[in-house]
């Protein structure tokens, strides 16, 4: 047991150090490995060094190793195989697994409690119920988020949903409070809480739009952290406690940072007033002007003879998996003496920082990626801005139109550039559901089509010039 | 009132850990650039996979004739391992790309 204490201490320190290093680009990868090493140590220490209060060590090694083997193989293979564009939903899926794990632990421990009830089970019951509720919500919520990101689950909302959600959650908490107040180990009530938690998790995420999924995943991530910490109380396990609370706190802050990058309040995301407000915005945007289309060969000429080109990648690029051909276009233009840079909006793509990961995968040099502030300084000297499947992050309404639901969101000011080519699949509005006046500006021309196909054709055209 | 104070006194080491960890969690990632939001979320996701320890304990303590505990514990071990292994592997894959850039 003393050795195990030391092992858990080391694991806790590795989680803290790992998280610290993860927030700096140069040390991030090492940080991840350090945390992973700490985790491995903690797991091995638990399997071989754990003794309960009576000094008995663990049994069922076959089951334990079997489970770890199955989980490790599936986890490693799916993590290796997943496409870079599907990373966010993968994170959501793994997060859900952690939540489910915490909920299952609570169920088993509740059964233990029922079988051999101590005189006062309230402290344990409180932790078990908290782990059940938080873990289950995290699990079902993450599953919905996962389904939404890969397009299998559509937005679903009904009038008064927020009130019903509140009622469901309060009912679960009230039943839990009742059980605690009366020291009541009732299985029917326990499973009612489980069902209510499942319902709450589903209804909580279902009405929230796909664009806000990163924020939701981040919240659920911190939920799972807290659920893991519940296990730490239950087993008097400091590694679980520190790891769980650490992720709970860091995850909450990360959620807030993400909301800040989108200039939204957390409450706004959760209550989903975005969708409601967007309808009003769409109405008064009906009378927009006409847009102008540009042919592929014209676009190729414009790009090839520009001095400075700024590429603005967005969700469309991620969906079309066009990052490699985008880099090819960049190299081609650079070889012709064109200065090419990328302007990265903090929330471009499916998750904050997602674009950087995608472009890094395609070998785009780190120095060529400009953050929003730098990019906005450079736009006035840019000849051609190439917007690839981005919409809301370049919508000038965020600056000009006080009635717009995205008013106040920091944007890339592409309208300051001399000209702008926008590649989109159609004139359909983006996530926010509002028209973009940029598309109707006289300096803007539209180039319709799938980002990958269009870029491939552009590369071919430019080579022929 | 004395009841609550007693409870605080009895569990003071837990309370200290929780409070300090909350501040540490916030402090540690306070200045993260937005570029790293996604990998950081993924890394934190892997770290809360520490819940696997609880699953292992549940599994290891289950009586051989308690099939409910055996099955649920087994499932919990699988899911927890998925969270840990998948979480760290995905994070590493994301960060691998950042590192390649730096080397050049």
Describe the protein.
Chain A is of the alpha/beta class and 465 residues long. Chain A has two domains: 87-271, no CATH class; 284-464, Rossmann fold (3-Layer(aba) Sandwich), CATH 3.40.50.1220. Chain A contains 18 helices and six strands. Chain A has helices at residues 2-22, 28-49, 61-81, 87-115, 122-149, 161-181, 187-205, 213-234, 238-261, 266-271, 273-284, 296-304, 315-320, 323-335, 354-361, 372-378, 397-400, 451-464, and strands at residues 308-313, 339-344, 369-371, 384-388, 419-424, 444-448. Chain A has a six-stranded parallel β-sheet. In chain A, helix 5 (122-149) packs antiparallel against helix 6 (161-181) and helix 5 runs parallel beside helix 7. The radius of gyration of chain A is 26 Å and the shape is elongated. The N and C termini of chain A lie far apart (74 Å). Residues 273-287 of chain A have low confidence and may be disordered. Chain B is mainly α and 104 residues long. Chain B has two domains: 1-31; 33-99. Chain B has five helices and no strands. In chain B, helix 3 runs antiparallel to helix 5 and helix 4 runs antiparallel to helix 5 (67-103). The longest helix of chain B has 37 residues, at 67-103. Chains A and B meet through helix 1, helix 2, helix 3, helix 4 and helix 8 of A and helix 2, helix 3, helix 4 and helix 5 of B.
What's the SSE blueprint?
The complex is a heterodimer of chains A (465) and B (104).
Chain A (H helix, E strand, L loop, with lengths): L1 H21 L5 H22 L11 H21 L5 H29 L6 H28 L11 H21 L5 H19 L7 H22 L3 H24 L4 H6 L1 H12 L11 H9 L3 E6 L1 H6 L2 H13 L3 E6 L9 H8 L7 E3 H7 L5 E5 L8 H4 L18 E6 L19 E5 L2 H14 L1
Helix pairs in contact in A: 1-2, 1-9, 4-5, 4-8, 5-6, 5-7, 5-8, 6-7, 8-9, 12-18, 14-18
Chain B lengths: L1 H9 L1 H17 L8 H11 L4 H10 L5 H37 L1
């Amino acid at each position: 047991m003393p050795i195990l204490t030391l092992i858990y201490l080391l694991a806790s320190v590795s989680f803290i150090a790992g998280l610290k290093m993860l927030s700096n680009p140069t040390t991030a990868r090492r940080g991840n490995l350090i945390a992973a090493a700490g985790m491995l140590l903690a797991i091995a220490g638990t399997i071989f060094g754990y003794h309960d209060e009576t000094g008995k060590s663990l049994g069922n090694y076959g089951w334990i190793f079997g489970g770890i083997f199955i989980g490790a193989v599936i986890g490693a293979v799916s993590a290796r195989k997943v496409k870079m564009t599907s990373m966010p939903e993968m994170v959501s899926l793994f997060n859900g697994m952690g939540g489910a794990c915490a909920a299952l632990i609570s169920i088993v421990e509740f059964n233990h409690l029922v079988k051999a009830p101590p005189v006062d089970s309230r402290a344990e019951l409180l932790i078990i119920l908290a782990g059940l509720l938080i873990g289950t919500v995290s699990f079902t919520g993450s599953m919905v988020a996962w389904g939404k990101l890969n397009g299998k689950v559509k937005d679903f909302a009904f009038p008064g949903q927020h009130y019903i959600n509140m009622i469901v959650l309060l009912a679960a908490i009230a039943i839990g409070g009742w059980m605690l107040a009366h020291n009541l180990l009732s299985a029917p009530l326990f499973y009612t809480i489980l069902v209510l938690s499942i319902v709450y998790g589903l209804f909580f995420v279902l009405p929230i739009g796909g664009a806000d999924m990163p924020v939701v995943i981040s919240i659920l991530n911190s939920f799972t952290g807290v659920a893991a910490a519940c296990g730490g109380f239950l087993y008097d396990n400091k590694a679980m406690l520190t790891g769980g609370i650490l992720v709970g706190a860091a995850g909450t802050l990360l959620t807030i940072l993400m909301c800040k990058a989108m200039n939204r309040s957390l409450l706004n995301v959760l209550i989903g007033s975005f969708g409601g407000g967007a309808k009003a915005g769409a109405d008064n945007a009906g009378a927009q002007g006409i847009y102008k289309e540009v042919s592929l060969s014209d676009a190729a000429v414009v790009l090839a003879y520009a001095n400075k080109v700024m590429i603005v990648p967005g969700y469309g690029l991620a969906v079309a998996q066009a990052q490699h051909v985008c880099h090819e276009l960049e190299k081609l233009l650079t070889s012709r003496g064109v200065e090419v840079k990328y302007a990265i909006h903090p929330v471009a793509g499916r998750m904050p920082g997602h674009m950087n990961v995608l472009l890094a995968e395609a070998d785009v040099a780190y120095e060529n990626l400009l953050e929003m502030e730098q990019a906005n300084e450079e736009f006035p000297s840019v000849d051609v801005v190439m917007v690839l499947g981005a919409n809301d992050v370049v919508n000038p309404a965020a600056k000009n139109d006080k009635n717009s639901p995205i008013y106040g969101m920091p944007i890339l000011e592409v309208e300051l550039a001399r000209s702008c080519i926008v590649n989109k699949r159609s004139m359909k509005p983006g996530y926010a559901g509002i028209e973009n006046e940029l598309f109707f500006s006289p300096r803007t021309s539209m180039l319709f089509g799938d980002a990958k196909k269009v870029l491939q054709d552009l590369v071919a055209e430019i080579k022929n010039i | 009132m004395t009841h609550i104070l007693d409870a605080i006194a009895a569990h003071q080491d837990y309370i200290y850990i929780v409070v300090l960890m909350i501040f540490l969690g916030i402090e540690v990632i306070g200045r993260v650039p937005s570029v790293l939001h996604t990998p950081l979320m993924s890394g934190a996701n892997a770290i809360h996979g520490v819940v696997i320890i609880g699953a292992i304990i549940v599994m290891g303590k289950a009586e051989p004739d308690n099939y409910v505990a055996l099955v649920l514990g087994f499932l919990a071990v699988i899911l927890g391992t998925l969270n840990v292994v998948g979480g760290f592997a995905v994070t590493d894959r994301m960060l691998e790309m950042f590192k390649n850039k730096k080397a050049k």
